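Page 37, continued from 36.
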């Protein structure tokens, strides 16, 4: 298993002994002063307290990288801020651990910038990169995804249910998935925070086996109040507790460990539309 530069080989039992009973959040803007998340350490700790109260035990901090935040979230600064936040959480007795990562805006330079250690993979494990696609236009990122996979990096696409240009090209999305890309759906999309249409698409992506994990994408304390706990309960009610555990704990732990996550219902994938 590949390891990140700032921590030894990770073991799920060392990181989160009860991970099967708690949630692992692989997309969260919890670092202070770096992007459009908390503006101060006080706000960052408050957000983490809300997540911990929602039964989250492990969080990957994913500040926006590239795009309009390119100059403010270099890899080294993200790692240092994660260390500061973890110290603050320990001092306040918050039972939650934070690991470094990033939500990387789609850019043809991603492979190069990862190789130069200027942007981050999830949990800094050099195995999965969380990619945010443009909101208003469709770009076929297949060639970039193939390049990354040839270098041993798997793509996790952030909140595809909120990307209408992508959903208008379901055959392209299917092709990306068949070639190893994965989808991360936002908890708030499942609970209805982004409207009825987004909620419907999010549930389709989960039910059809296109989704490997659900994450909060929380930016402040209010975001965390309708996060993984509520989404997990809804998934368990509709699709069963095993599915809820897979999407909210087991697959996220595999991502954190640098393992390939398992897709749900992969044999029954259908086109969205």
């Amino acid at each position: 298993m590949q390891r990140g530069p700032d921590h030894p080989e990770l073991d799920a039992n060392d990181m989160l002994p009860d991970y099967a009973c708690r949630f692992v959040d692989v997309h969260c803007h919890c670092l202070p002063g770096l992007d459009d998340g908390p503006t101060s350490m006080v706000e960052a700790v408050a957000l983490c307290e809300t997540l911990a109260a929602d039964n989250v035990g492990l969080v990957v901090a994913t500040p926006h990288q590239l795009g309009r935040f390119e100059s403010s979230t270099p890899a080294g600064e993200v790692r240092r801020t994660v260390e500061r936040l973890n110290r603050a959480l320990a001092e306040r007795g918050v039972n939650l651990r934070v690991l470094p990562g990033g939500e990387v805006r789609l850019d043809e330079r991603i492979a190069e910038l990862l190789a130069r250690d200027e942007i981050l993979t999830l949990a800094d494990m050099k195995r999965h990169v969380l990619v945010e696609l443009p909101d208003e236009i469709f770009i076929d990122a297949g060639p970039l995804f193939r390049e990354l996979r040839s270098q041993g990096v798997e793509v996790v696409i952030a909140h595809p249910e909120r990307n209408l240009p992508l959903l208008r090209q379901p055959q392209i999305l299917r092709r990306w998935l068949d070639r190893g890309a994965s989808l991360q759906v936002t908890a708030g999309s499942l609970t209805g925070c982004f409207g009825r249409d987004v909620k419907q698409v999010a549930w389709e992506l989960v039910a059809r086996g296109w989704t490997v994990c659900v994450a909060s994408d929380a930016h402040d304390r209010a975001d965390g109040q309708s996060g993984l706990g509520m989404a997990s309960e809804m998934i368990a009610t509709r699709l069963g507790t095993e599915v809820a555990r897979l999407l909210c704990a087991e697959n996220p732990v595999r991502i954190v460990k640098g393992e390939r996550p398992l897709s749900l219902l992969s044999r029954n994938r259908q086109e969205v539309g």
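Residues 3 and 9 are 6 Å apart (CA to CA). Flag for discussion at group meeting. The mean pLDDT is 88.
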